[in-house]
Every structure is written in structure tokens, then in C-alpha cells.
Automatic annotation (TrEMBL):
The reaction(s) this protein catalyses: holo-[cytochrome c] = apo-[cytochrome c] + heme b
Main location: mitochondrion
Residue segments, region Disordered: 30-50
Function field: Lyase that catalyzes the covalent linking of the heme group to the cytochrome C apoprotein to produce the mature functional cytochrome.
Name used for this protein in its record: Holocytochrome c-type synthase
GO cellular component labels: mitochondrial inner membrane
Lineage: Eukaryota, Fungi, Dikarya, Basidiomycota, Agaricomycotina
Length: 215
């Protein structure tokens, strides 16, 4: 049986899995058209199963449009129902990208010997800027708008990953782009060993994470 989405920021019921409280209004403002929206009752209740495996031989499940809208409304973020058709697919795609970056780090480290690495748990920490993000901010980069910590299981070895989320603009000024900096936390020998092993992938590991934070 699949369970809730991998981004619930400490809220543990199945309909509370969109981005965290401090980031929801940011996401809404990125896609708001400033027009009237249809009644929320018209929103889809269908949920998409992610590609992210759990330790229970199931996969995490993303929120429906209706659940995403309800979660934002409960936090008084004034969501627009019309925006859900844009926000929800992008929310899901960003999480899939985060998982693909985790898998890049995990490639060749033995997880395939037990059926692949799995996401054990997750926590949103939007108010806790990571040491790396703090350093990059001091160097002139834009601060991330959100942070997640994901713990994965690799055949009994637990590895915590830090994910910093950044926003930017695409080639067209109206296009919104997202930049993810995904890397193992340096809180044990395994994380330190992985980070040191990727030193030559780029300054502070940015090339390994797939994208540098926008300036």
C-alpha cells in the first residue's frame, strides 16, 4: 500500500504533504495569475504514485489537487484553485528530481544488492538554513526558499540527505525554474566519505547535485 508524499514538513496526516508552511505562499505567488479561480470542489481528488520506494515495499504517494489546496487554505495562504493544476505537477516533478539526484549519489554504493535504496523518512526544515546554503548566501547567492532532510536506507545503512530548493527564472521571464542542491549530510563517516569522494565533481559538490543556486 502506498503512503503520503515525501514532503510533509512534520505534518503526518495523508492530506498534509505539500511543501512546508513557509514555502506554500512562495509557490502560490509564483503561479498566481491574479484572476478569479473556480470553486475548490472542482479540483481533482486523484493522487499520483511516486517512483520513490518506501521500506514497506510500496511507494510514496503525492497529494491530489484538492488536498494541496486544503492544506494551503488551513495555513491561511489564500490559495487559488486554478493554480493547483500548475503547482501540483511541478511539486511532484521537483520531488522526482530530488530522488533522481539521491540515486546519482547512491549509484554503485551497494544498494542494488538489496533491491535498491529506499526513502525511510523525511522532514521539512524551511527555517533552518544549512551551513552550505549560509556560506553560499554570504558569497552573494540567493538563499534557498526551502530545505528538506531525507533519510534513505541502503541495505541497512542509513544516510541523511540535505536538499536545498532555489527558485529562478527561465529563458522567458514568465517561466519559473527550480534548482536543487542535493548532497549527503556530513554528520557521520559515511556522509563525509561520500562528500570527499565527490570533491572533484565541482566546488562544494554543486555539479553532483545537478544545479547551482541562482545568483
Amino acid at each position: 500500500m502506498a503512503d503520503k508524499c515525501p514532503v510533509d514538513h512534520g505534518e503526518h496526516s495523508g492530506d498534509n504533504c505539500p511543501i512546508g508552511p513557509s514555502a506554500r505562499s512562495t509557490w502560490a505567488s509564483l503561479f498566481s495569475k491574479g484572476t478569479s479561480s473556480p470553486n475548490s470542489s472542482s479540483l481533482s481528488t486523484g493522487r499520483e504514485v511516486s517512483s520513490i520506494p518506501r521500506t514497506s515495499d510500496a511507494h510514496w504517494v503525492y497529494p491530489s489537487e484538492a488536498q494541496f489546496f486544503a492544506a494551503m487554505a488551513r495555513k491561511n495562504h489564500n490559495p487559488k484553485a486554478a493554480d493547483m493544476k500548475s503547482i501540483v505537477p511541478i511539486h511532484n516533478a521537483v520531488n522526482e528530481r530530488a530522488w533522481s539526484e539521491v540515486l546519482r549519489w547512491e549509484a554503485g554504493r551497494g544498494g542494488e544488492n538489496c533491491g535498491g535504496v529506499k526513502l525511510v523518512n523525511f522532514k521539512g526544515r524551511p527555517n533552518d538554513i544549512s551551513p552550505k546554503a549560509r556560506l553560499m548566501t554570504l558569497l552573494g547567492y540567493t538563499a534557498p526558499f526551502d530545505r528538506h532532510d531525507w533519510v534513505v536506507d541502503r541495505c541497512g545503512t542509513r544516510v541523511r540527505y540535505v536538499i536545498d530548493f532555489y527558485t529562478g527564472r527561465g529563458a522567458a521571464s514568465s517561466d519559473v525554474s527550480f534548482y536543487l542542491d542535493v548532497r549527503p549530510a556530513i554528520d557521520n563517516w559515511e556522509g563525509l566519505r561520500m562528500r570527499l569522494g565527490n570533491t572533484f565533481d565541482g566546488l562544494f559538490g554543486l555539479q553532483n547535485s545537478g544545479a547551482a543556486p541562482p545568483s
